[in-house]
Write a structure and sequence with these properties.
0% strand; flat
Length: 80
């Protein structure tokens, strides 16, 4: 019984993290692309049903680059 409860909690945590991370990355990418292109791209709404879908995953990938890639690049250049 405890194994089943633990497995259920792990599944719930995985779903919640996937949704949160997906939406955070999508919104970050959407805002950054909107600022860089003066609101010409992306031609997708801010709220989508699936932020990791085939049409919106590139926006989430750009959000990942903005949240992770740019700070790591800055740290590497600054402290190397």
């Amino acid at each position: 019984m405890p194994e089943l409860l633990l497995r259920g909690l792990m599944l719930l945590a995985e779903i919640v993290l996937e949704i949160l991370i997906g939406y955070v990355l999508y919104v970050t990418g959407w805002l950054a692309l909107g600022l860089l292109t003066l609101s010409h791209y992306p031609n997708l709404p801010l709220r989508v049903t699936d932020p990791m879908g085939p049409r919106s995953s590139w926006v989430a990938a750009f959000g990942f680059f903005c949240l992770v890639g740019l700070p790591l690049t800055w740290l590497t250049v600054t402290y190397s």
